[in-house]
Amino acid sequence: MKATIVVPTIGRNLDNVLKDLSEQTYKNYEIFIEKEGNITQCMNRALEKAHGSILIRIDDDVRLPKNWLDNIMHTFKVNPKAGGVTGPTIVPPDLKKNRDSLKYAKYHKPARIYPSGRLSYGSNFLEAIEYVGPCDILESCNYAVRTDLVKHVGGNYRDWE
After folding, report:
1. What is the pLDDT of residues 100-121, one digit of tens each?
2. Distance CA 145, CA 125 (A)
3. Cα–Cα dist 60/109, whole Å
């Protein structure tokens, strides 16, 4: 399977993310750096050009372990019913203090929306890395979906704002 990795950017230095991508153990991928417009426009342009069966979005300032892409692709290979895969959003402790929404988060599973309407930001913890199971929200800085599913539901991303 081929992966299409999309990196929308707002002009940040991409050296770290590009270095990490070049060192991935899984090599069957293409990268699109999208610089113009909002994230929705960037993802739509990439979707039009994508050759990969898996469409992946990452932020321009993430760091990736060498087996990051291998783990994503393995999950899709072993579970043909998986429509999407998300990774944790690990916010460094020194930056957590600036994010009110994370100050009181104590959950260790991927983000969930509970019947009460409460939102869990659980995947912002290192403990979430080993979690395998359902989630309600794909982390926007680190998610993968089957390209054909995105096309099946309308063929493009929509701006929900």
Report:
1. 555 555 544 556 666 776 656 5
2. 22
3. 24
- d(CA 18, CA 10) in angstroms, rounded, equals 15
The rounded distance, in Å, linking the Cα atoms of 64 and 19 is 9
Please give the pLDDT value at position 85: 84
3-state SS track over the chain:
CCEEEEEECCCCCCHHHHHHHHCCCCCCEEEEEECCCCHHHHHHHHHHHCCCCEEEEECCCCCCCCCHHHHHHHHHHHCCCCCEEECCCCCCHHHHCCCHHHCCCCCCCCCEECCCCCEECHHHCHHHHHCCCCCCCCCCCEEEEEHHHHHHCCCCCCCCC
pTM for the full model?
A: 0.77
User: Which of 20, 16, 45, 15 lies closest to 32, judged by CA?
Assistant: 45
The structure tokens listed for 56 are 């992946």
Cα(119)–Cα(135) distance, integer angstroms: 11
Largest CA distance in the chain: 43
CA pseudo-torsion sign 111, 143, 89, 141: negative
